[in-house]
Amino acid sequence: MLTFETTSIQGAAAILEKLTSLPFKKVAHQVATLDAQPSNENGGIMVMVTGALLVWNILILLITHYSQVDDSPAPMNYSQTFQLLPDGAGSYFVFNDVFRLVYGS
């Protein structure tokens, strides 16, 4: 399950559709902090990340009623917490993911 802002999406196909429908031409992450710890007896890992998204060619109306369309990156702070679980074949998959943009006050 992915919670993106106030919308919860479940299932790989629905999550992919949501992420590809976002109005960004290009996105880069600038990670500021990353913390991880064991989350259960089965080898799960809880991860929290904060940082900034750099987005190009964005056409979006934010809470601040600010819109921008150009080729310079527009940084937007974010917080993301997700849980990784082992898939039984030596890899992990994202079981839960909560993503929030952090707006200035």
UniProtKB/TrEMBL annotation:
Residue spans crossing the bilayer: 43-63
Subcellular location: Cytoplasm; Nucleus
Superkingdom of source: Eukaryota
InterPro entries per UniProt: NTF2, NTF2-like_dom_sf, NTF2_dom, Nuclear_transport_factor_2_euk
Cellular component, GO annotation: cytoplasm; nucleus
Domain NTF2 stretches: 1-101
Keywords: Cytoplasm, Membrane, Nucleus, Protein transport, Transmembrane, Transmembrane helix, Transport
Gene Ontology terms describing biological process: mRNA transport; nucleocytoplasmic transport; protein transport
Function: Has a role in nuclear-cytoplasmic transport of proteins and mRNAs.
UniProt protein name: NTF2 domain-containing protein
